[in-house]
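Query structure, 510 tokens:
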């Protein structure tokens, strides 16, 4: 029993999560999925993600019922989920069922079977599903403005988002399991049929300017598979489809290409499952219809949707207001020996010499500082490759490709590594990379000056005076200026195009 408790405490401690883990069971028309989240719920980490492709909604259009075989497969998976959660000691569990269960004549019967195995399912309405997906998008993109389109197996949810609020939520019977019903003699017939449903649902923004309509945020596994296809076609250097963005013209070209593709050919693509490959051509025709009627300025793919919306809705307002990038990086860095308070002090210490300027932001610079300091806890021989990989490929929320490249460049410079991977230079301009390199070199000076001791930051100050980089040291800490410090000063001053000097003063006055 003691061993079990220690194992549990170790698991939670490794996540840096004072609030424990939360589980969501999402019973959809295509898949039944369990996701366990840890870390800060403002930017949660996925601890466990498991699904069963039960296709509960596959016969609803024909029979109006959940198929017996599909229910049996779903229940088998759900019993496993219940046992896993019990063994892991996770008690914060939320179970939701969407289009298939709410639309099926035997949906209430299936819900009773769920209660019998210990779950407390909530069958949500189409409008509620749309709003939850929209809240997930708002959580991931706090400045989101446009329309969220959540494509599931049984339905398509559409909802407007702007200024952190939602409006005009609706659900349309255009899930991936229902799209084949709209096929005619050719793709043109299918597009006309889908267009009719979209217009009947009250969605037609084609008469407005794209800039006025905002972005189209695509939520759902089939859309993400579409993003993976586009990323591969572009040789895009990042691996995560979350936040991947296409302008309207590029999105239209992608939809045309996929609508004319064969599922068997798509199945051979890496990272596209057979199930998604079968649905991509039909989904591409749906995207064509959406682009025509919604006339967005751009298309943004979101990995956050209904499940993350459920988490976001439970947050207090002050937590919702947190920056998702900084919230996620702070927990990640804390679990790797870097206190956010120390990182904040170091970011403040370097502010005058290497602030965020034309390309970055102070939030990005602080995130870079936390990650770079956390990287110093890794063994030297693998430190930089691993930390740069964090910057480029970990699912951070609230940062784009350019921002990721700047994080990587700052981390590399903190380790005095000037050679950057080609994907970094593919994501950001030389000016942006140079700005981030200066952040990293300034942090290197701050970090090495006093071995990250808080007292060294109090007994020193870095500033720019005219054309000179000045390091002020209190008389009590004059000896901190050793050969490594001199080397770091020269390196930073040279990068800034400044001269340098060291002033020893009786005390530091801030």
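Result returned for the query:
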């Amino acid at each position: 029993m003691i061993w079990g408790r220690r194992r549990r405490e170790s698991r939670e401690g490794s996540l840096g999560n004072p609030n424990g883990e939360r589980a969501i069971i999402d019973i959809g028309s295509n898949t039944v999925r369990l996701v366990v989240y840890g870390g800060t719920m403002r930017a949660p980490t996925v601890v466990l993600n498991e699904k069963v492709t039960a296709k509960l909604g596959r016969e609803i259009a024909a029979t109006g019922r959940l198929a017996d075989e599909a229910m049996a497969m779903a229940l088998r998976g759900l019993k496993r989920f219940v046992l896993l959660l019990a063994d892991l000691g996770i008690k914060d569990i939320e179970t939701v069922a969407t289009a298939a269960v709410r639309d099926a004549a035997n949906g209430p019967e299936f819900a009773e079977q769920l209660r019998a195995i210990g779950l407390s399912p909530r069958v949500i309405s189409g409008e509620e599903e749309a709003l939850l997906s929209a809240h997930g998008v708002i959580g991931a993109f706090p400045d989101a403005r446009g329309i969220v389109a959540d494509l599931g197996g049984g339905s398509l949810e559409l909802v407007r988002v702007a200024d952190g609020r939602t409006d005009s939520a609706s659900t349309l019977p255009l899930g991936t399991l229902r799209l084949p019903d709209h096929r005619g003699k050719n793709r043109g017939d299918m597009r006309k049929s889908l267009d009719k449903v979209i217009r009947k649902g009250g969605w037609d923004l084609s008469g407005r300017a794209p800039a006025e309509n905002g972005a189209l945020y695509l939520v759902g596994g089939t859309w993400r598979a579409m993003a993976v296809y586009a990323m591969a076609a572009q040789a895009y250097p990042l691996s995560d489809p979350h936040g991947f963005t296409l302008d309207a013209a590029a999105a239209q070209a992608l939809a045309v290409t996929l609508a004319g593709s064969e599922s068997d050919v798509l199945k051979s693509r890496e990272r596209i499952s057979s199930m998604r490959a079968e649905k991509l051509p039909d989904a591409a025709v749906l995207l064509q219809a959406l682009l025509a009627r919604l006339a967005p300025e751009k298309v943004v793919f979101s990995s956050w949707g209904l499940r993350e919306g459920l988490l976001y809705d439970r947050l207090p307002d002050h937590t919702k207001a947190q920056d998702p990038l900084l919230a996620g990086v702070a927990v990640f860095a804390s679990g790797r020996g870097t206190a956010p308070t120390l990182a904040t002090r170091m970011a403040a210490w370097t502010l005058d010499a290497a602030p965020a300027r034309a390309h970055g932001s102070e939030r990005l610079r602080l995130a870079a500082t936390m990650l770079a300091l956390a990287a110093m806890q890794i063994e030297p021989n693998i430190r930089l490759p691993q930390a740069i990989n964090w910057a480029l490929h970990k699912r951070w929320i609230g940062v784009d490709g350019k921002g990721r490249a700047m994080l990587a460049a700052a981390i590399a410079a903190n380790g005095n590594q000037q050679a950057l991977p080609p994907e970094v230079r593919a994501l950001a301009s030389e000016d942006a990379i140079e700005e981030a390199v200066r952040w990293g070199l300034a942090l290197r000076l701050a970090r090495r000056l006093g071995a990250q001791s808080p007292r060294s930051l109090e007994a020193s100050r870095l500033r720019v005076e005219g054309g000179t980089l000045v390091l002020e040291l209190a008389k009590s800490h004059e000896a901190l200026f050793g050969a490594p410090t001199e080397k770091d000063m020269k390196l930073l001053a040279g990068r800034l195009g400044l001269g340098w000097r060291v002033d020893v003063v009786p005390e530091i006055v801030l």
